[in-house]
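Two proteins were folded this term; both appear here.
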Amino acid sequence: MRVRNTLSVTGALAGVAAMAYLGTGIAQAGNPELPTGNYQVCGNVLNSSSAGVSGVTVSGELYDVGNNLVPGAIALTTTNADGGYCLQGTSGMVSTVTGGGYVKLHAAGGSFGTWETSGIHESDFFNHIYIKLPSITQSANKFNGTV
């Protein structure tokens, strides 16, 4: 019985060690970009191998409930070394989205899928809202695109 328990523990430790070793190559693939303040929409731009792609131009546009582009509500940034980005919105972004508006994302040479075609609506924003205890920010993340 003692030999069997020792082998089980040894096998479990070997499995954990193997997963930790193999996981090191994956950990760099799209570390989620986190908001640093309010009124931000963040995510990562990934390639077909799920690795972050740096230097991609990402833009976001805010539309009101009537499908009109909100003046002055276009944000532009470039992805960082891990493919992460955060677009800084205005203080009216959240109320516009919760009032029936939406945000559309675009990646130069890539796609944001649904976030690009129909946009980020209220339910999407709340499903992705960034919570940093003890508070909830007025930002959302994990809106990922591909190139």
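Next, the second protein.
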Amino acid sequence: MADFRLDRELVEAFEEGRLDQEGEAVLADQVARILPFHSVLPNPLAASLARVSQHLGGQQALLSWLDRHPGAPRLTARLYRVIALLDQLSAQPVIVDALREFREKTPYPRGLAEYMPPDTSHETLSSVSYAIESLLADDRPEEARRVADAAVELLHTLAARAAEIDAQGGDLAAEIDSARRELREAWDARSRSHH
């Protein structure tokens, strides 16, 4: 179970610009641990998380800040990048069409069988993003990373097919490859630091 803690003194010192590197690393670790619970946090914790996010300049800036801190914060930030990519692409009809076509041959892509609903719709990829966040919340980062890795592999395949279907769809491959590389780098660094 996650440690539902966001030290008020650290948050205040951070907002006031008087938090040292060590304190900032502790705060980043605390933020990474509670972020997967953002939608169900008790009001005081949600308010503290919002204060940190606002101080940094919003959700994207918060994730960039987490990414600058090795270990759980960086891994969390990079998992959220994959989550955002899944959510973004789930809204693109050409990606949903490519997924539907893919699932005719492979109903459950490798590594995603227990995380995908049986039907293919605009919610299918979002269900995978929800699973990644849930695994992170359950303190199962290795499994969250495996699912995210499998999801990125699937997205790579879907993006290639989507480009064949609709040449106007843009080049998603570079963004997907970047997310895959960054996720693996964060996991490798985290694994080395745990040995």
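Residues 117 and 192 are 35 Å apart (CA to CA). The mean pLDDT is 91. These notes refer to the second protein only.
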